[in-house]
Amino acid sequence: MATPDLPESMRAHLAAQEAQPPLETAREFLAGHLSDADSLAAVRARLQRIAQHNTRLHRRVLGALEAVLATSYPPDTLARLVGWDANWVLDDPTDAGAAQFLRDLAQLLRDVINEAA
Predict the structure, then answer these.
(1) Has residue 19 got a pLDDT over 60?
(2) 8 Å CB contact between 47 and 111
(3) Which DSSP symbol is given to 20?
(4) Which stretches of 1-117 are DSSP H helices?
(5) Where does the source fall among the domains of life (predicted)?
(6) Which residues, at least 6 apart from 58, have a Cβ–Cβ distance to it below 8 Å?
(7) Nearest of 22, 14, 47 to residue 32 by alpha carbon
(8) Inter-residue long-range contacts of 96-101, CB under 8 Å, 24+ positions, other chains counted
(9) Which long-range contacts (CB under 8 A, 24 or more apart) does 33-41 make?
(10) Which of 113, 108, 27 shows the shortest CA–CA distance to 67?
(11) N or C end of the chain, less CB within 10 A?
(12) Which residues contact 48 (CB under 8 A, 6 or more apart)?
């Protein structure tokens, strides 16, 4: 992303975000955008409001979720990611259930990005 017109501090901040491991990006997003939401409809509405101005967050998080889903982690990593960081109760609280939740969340992000385009 070319950012020559941004102050150096902002460019450094953006570079640090891009260099962050996908699991950490996903963890921060889940804690910040899902942990206090009462439904995925509320999450979608929040993301749609943000997308009216910019979809950079959405694209960064989507990439992180896709990378997390493509990576093998120790047992219970995804379950903890969804259960603890997102504060989300799943019918299937296993890694498999959490992976499906994350796939659904990634699709929600794709949909919001496409709607904003």
Answers:
(1) yes
(2) no
(3) S
(4) 8-19, 22-33, 40-51, 56-69, 77-80, 95-116
(5) Bacteria
(6) 47, 50, 51, 109, 112, 113, 116
(7) 47
(8) 99/69
(9) 34/86, 34/87, 34/88, 34/105, 35/85, 35/86, 35/87, 35/88, 36/87, 40/104, 40/105, 40/108
(10) 27
(11) C
(12) 112, 115, 116
Single-letter residue type at 90: L
Digit-coded pLDDT (tens) for 22-80: 999 999 999 999 999 999 999 999 999 999 999 999 999 999 999 999 999 999 999 99
Is the separation of the CB atoms in 69 and 33 below 8 Å?
A: no
Contact 112, 51 (CB under 8 A): yes
Grouping H, G, I as helix, E, B as strand and the rest as coil, residue 53 is coil
**CA distance linking residue 65 with residue 46, whole number of Å:** 18
Say what the pLDDT of residue 5 is: 79
